[in-house]
Write a sequence for this structure.
């Protein structure tokens, strides 16, 4: 099947029950999306599917033929890190880093829809992303910092 991943058309053969997460990591060489629970509970595997935030561990790879997938790898470019990624690094919102790609993708999705979210809106938007290390204070701070950087407040 063909699909668009991070702006490039890719050709892929997948097994019947293979998840999009497995296809991204093991067939397409994109290990940014993490596998922590494989049950839709932690958000570490978050990607954008046709612009909507999804847990890639819950999406069948075979179901994304012809669709557009964006992973955390799409956020940085030759110019460097995306403001969301920079904000997480600069606020110290990263410890082991396992949850970080999912949080970064979820934050990017939130700020694309809602440039200046309230703390409550941030908490709601990130409620599907679990961090086992940091507590959430610095993560909330990182989201507000990213909002300011993206929209130059
Ligand atoms: S690995 Fe997909 S939600 Fe946890
Ligand atoms: S930084 Fe370790 S799980 Fe979030």
């Amino acid at each position: 099947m063909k699909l668009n991943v991070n702006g490039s058309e890719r050709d892929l053969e997948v097994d019947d029950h293979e998840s999009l997460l497995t296809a991204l990591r093991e067939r397409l060489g994109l290990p940014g999306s993490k596998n922590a629970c494989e049950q839709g509970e932690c958000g570490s595997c978050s990607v954008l599917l046709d612009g909507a935030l999804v847990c890639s561990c819950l999406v069948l790879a075979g179901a994304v033929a012809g669709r557009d997938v964006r992973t955390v790898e799409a956020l940085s470019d030759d110019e460097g890190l995306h403001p969301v990624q920079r904000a997480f690094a600069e606020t110290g919102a990263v410890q082991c880093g396992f949850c970080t790609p999912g949080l970064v993708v979820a934050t990017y999705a939130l700020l694309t829809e809602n440039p200046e979210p309230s703390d409550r809106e941030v908490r709601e938007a990130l409620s599907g992303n679990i961090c086992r290390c940091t507590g959430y204070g610095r993560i909330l701070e990182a989201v507000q910092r990213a909002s300011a950087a993206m929209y130059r407040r």
